[in-house]
# Entry
Amino acid sequence: MARSTRTACALATLALTVSGGAASSSPETTTTAARAASVGGPPVTRVLAVSIDGLRPSVINQLGRAGTPTLHRLIRQGASTLNARTEREMTVTLPNHTGMVTGRPIVASRGGHGVTWNDDRRQPPTVQSAAGHDVSSVFRVVHRADRSTALFASKTKFSLFERSWDAAINKMRIRLDNAALTRATRRDLLAHNRGFTFLHLSAPDSAGHTHGWRSRAYLRAVRATDRRLGQIVQTINEHGRLRNHLVLMVTADHGGTGRDHGDATRLVNYRIPFLVWGPTVARGTDLYGLNPDYANPGRRRTSYSDTRQPVRNGDVANVALDLLGLGPVRGSEHDRAQDLDWN
Ligand SMILES: [Zn+2]
# Structure
């Protein structure tokens, strides 16, 4: 479809969204169907979000298409930026992943999810107890829409999510072996028609901590992770029910430098990639180019009070729900208006 036609359809879709209102889910479903039709594809009914722990975007350029063919393919065929942002407050794993699934910033006193720790502690036992009130998540919204969800994680601290949204996560698998976890995810994608699946791959972060973010071991881990992502893309492409209905998102919780990533004021830690790929996604486009309401922050550490926000890893929840035709996570802040567009 010609770009001008597509834009006109996108505007029509937008009008439908506004007139349909935000509360009910049925007009939103219509919106997604209309949007899918507007770009000539069937409706998106499934989302797979992949977080690559410690993936510094510069390494994608450094390794090039030869070293990271899958990430390059997703960029070439999808909508992406290599200049997205983590949560502003912290550049560590558990707080950022909690942001991805809740759409909230971190600091509880300003509406954040309150998960400020990054280990296996059992106190507070849940995200809700950390925040001091109920905290919803993408899992809960999808589950309440009668769709199933799954979480595949390669660090044990993710058990926090199971304790927090037990009823809404239909399948939870924690396995440190990234290759085995990828196989389990591929099997699950084929065996179940889930609305939302989250996969966390830890290998780059582990190599970074042990050998450094500039080490050969880190580069090796990123190449291996790209291959695993490639296996997932292969599974999707081989099966029409996935290829025609599933959108894949890829992001990271933080970058890294030296053997750490804890300093939230450093560009190398807070700059991360954000990639969207699949049916209805504009091919080979830059997310900032598609979204003039968002601002490419350059090298800046952004603030939540900036008028135009950067693309954030915390947008995962509401972009996923928007793709599925569902309204935003209650209490969320990142992409709450679900105006981050992918086509
Ligand atoms: Zn780490």
Remarks:
- The chain has two domains: 1-43, 45-323.
- Strands lie at 46-52, 79-85, 149-153, 171-174, 196-201, 246-251, 271-277, 285-286.
